Amino acid sequence: MKGLFAIGDIHGCFDSLLELVEKQIQLDKNDRLVLLGDYIDRGNKSKEVIDYIIDLQEKGFGIISLIGNHELLLLETLEDEKNKSKWIQNGGLETLNSFGIDSITNFPLKYLQFFKNLQNYYSFEEFLFVHAGFNDKILNPFQDTYSMV
């Protein structure tokens, strides 16, 4: 492995992500890039962000994708419509617009699978990566997935 990098809170800002990964980091297949969640909402290019992540993974780059609270809120909204207004207030409308859909129920399966397969944390050598934090008040902080996002 050549380099280890972490990026968090992209929030639909595809152009900034592209600049960071390709021009600043100059990511190659010997690097490991840990993405710390919050790929969607607020910015207007959430779909492009997710497509880029999937494309890098499919091309064999070492991309580890963690879940953030915005992806979790999207999944919770899919499960229970009562979460919709909270998601919309937190940038969900921009995400819907980016995907060219008017309802969360119209998300293509490919993207729903991506969101559902995101990891809560990633451990590498002496590093632990997570979107938010760990609950160190309990015996096993890995059991508290809510604190992680």
SSE string, helices as H and strands as E: EHEHEHHHEEH
Looking at the structure, the CATH topology is Purple Acid Phosphatase, chain A, domain 2
When the domains are counted, the total is 1
Major pleated sheet: 3 strands, parallel
What gap, in angstroms, lies between the N and C termini? 27 Å
Q: Count of helices? A: 6
Overall strand count? 5
CATH superfamily: Metallo-dependent phosphatases
Low-confidence stretches: none
Structure report:
The chain is of the alpha/beta class. The chain has one domain: Metallo-dependent phosphatases (Purple Acid Phosphatase, chain A, domain 2), CATH 3.60.21. It is 43% helix and 13% strand. The protein contains 6 helices and 5 strands; from the N terminus they run βαβαβαααββα. It has helices spanning 14-25, 46-58, 69-79, 84-99, 109-116, 145-148, and strands at residues 4-7, 32-35, 62-65, 121-124, 127-130. The strands form 2 sheets. It has a 3-stranded parallel sheet with strand order 1-2-3, with helices on one face. Helix 3 (69-79) packs across helix 4. It is globular. It starts with a strand and ends with a helix.
Question: Characteristics of this structure?
Answer:
149 residues; alpha/beta; three-stranded parallel β-sheet; two-stranded antiparallel sheet
What's the layout of helices and strands?
Blueprint: E1 4-7, H1 14-25, E2 32-35, H2 46-58, E3 62-65, H3 69-79, H4 84-99, H5 109-116, E4 121-124, E5 127-130, H6 145-148
Parallel strand pairs: 1-2, 2-3
Antiparallel strand pairs: 4-5
Helix pairs in contact: 3-4
